[in-house]
Design a protein that fits this description.
Elements (H helix, E strand, L loop, with lengths): L1 E3 L13 E8 L3 H17 L13 H10 L6 E8 L6 H4 L2 H15 L1 H4 L2 E6 L4 H14 L6 E6 L5 H15 L11 H5 L4 E6 L2
Parallel strand pairs: 3-6, 4-5
Antiparallel strand pairs: 1-2, 2-3
Helix pairs in contact: 1-7, 4-6
Length: about 200
């Protein structure tokens, strides 16, 4: 699981208009392992260091990445937040509460498919933030749902890099990025998308 966009609300001063949380789902461990190997080979072949990251990649690298993973077996679920439609002061004024809330929404929305799953989340935040997110999820996720949460270093985990690239592709397809070229990467994964939930 990873995100694209930021949780800020200074929409006229640089904050993103949308926030996307994306989840890449593997039904079999071997599918995850094979996909990881494809991405690692891509890093070597394309001489990318230290990781694939959508926001820092040239268009040609993005094209090559999505071409390489098109035969991989995974599914995508994502939640898209149009921040103009968020009125809660609690969410608008606290970045961590905003992030935690929408991660929870996506996990709860996916409860049937995520039961007994291991959920990997980009561990780039500070230690206290990660502890708070873990506590929050444990207290807020439906009791019927059993899962493990792991925070991992994206530079060392190819599947977090995949989630980042997928989140970026979905984010770029939204109205503030209306040029047709910004929709090609979402189209590249269209057959893998189970659902993109426009939060309202």
């Amino acid at each position: 699981m990873d995100e694209s966009g930021d949780p800020g609300f200074k929409l006229t001063r640089g904050s993103t208009s949308h926030f996307v949380v994306a989840m890449v789902i593997f039904d079999k461990n071997e599918d995850a392992e094979q996909t990881s190997e494809v991405i690692k080979k891509g890093l070597t072949d394309l001489k990318i260091k230290p990781e694939f990251k959508f926001s820092k990649s040239r268009d040609g690298i993005r094209d090559e990445f999505f071409n390489r993973i098109k035969s991989c077996k995974f599914r995508v679920r994502a939640l898209v937040v149009d921040k103009k439609k968020i009125y809660s002061p609690n969410l608008r004024e606290n970045d961590e509460k905003f992030y935690n809330y929408f991660v929870k929404q996506l996990i709860n929305f996916e409860e049937i498919k995520l039961n007994n799953a291991t959920i990997k989340i980009d561990g780039s935040g500070d230690r206290e933030f990660k502890k708070e997110l873990h506590r929050y999820l444990r207290s807020q996720i439906k009791p019927s749902l059993t899962f493990k949460v792991k925070f991992v270093d994206s530079q060392k985990d190819a599947l977090i890099q995949l989630a980042d690239m997928v989140a970026g592709a979905i984010y770029r397809s939204y109205p503030n990025e209306s040029r047709e070229v910004n929709k090609i990467w979402r189209k590249a994964i269209a057959d893998k998308i189970d659902n993109v939930w426009d939060f309202k």
